[in-house]
Write a structure and sequence with these properties.
single chain, alpha+beta, 3-stranded antiparallel β-sheet, 3 helices, elongated
Length: 93
């Protein structure tokens, strides 16, 4: 399980473990207007994008209907906030 590995690595490296939660706005509307298949494709696209824009040791997990969590080692809140904004910008683009 990668979540155990990321916690162990943060302890070993004496770094902060940051948790970033991401959610898609108006996902229920998208699903209603375009159907389950299209909505599922958006979720797959988002999962792939998040994985491609994070480090190998980070963990990306879907935790809700249109919600994802990213666990990442960081130096603190500022670095986590920068990463969160970068991901938001990528998704928006």
């Amino acid at each position: 399980d990668n979540s155990d590995a990321i916690v162990a690595a943060a302890k070993k490296n004496n770094t902060t473990l940051s948790i970033i939660q991401l959610g898609l706005d108006n996902f229920a509307v998208l699903r209603k207007q375009h159907g389950d298949d299209s909505a599922d494709q958006v979720l797959i696209w988002l999962a792939k994008l998040l994985q491609s824009k994070t480090r190998k040791g980070d963990t990306v997990a879907r935790i809700g209907n249109a919600e994802f969590t990213l666990a990442t080692q960081s130096s603190g809140r500022v670095e986590a906030a920068v990463l969160a904004e970068r991901l938001r910008s990528e998704v928006s683009a």
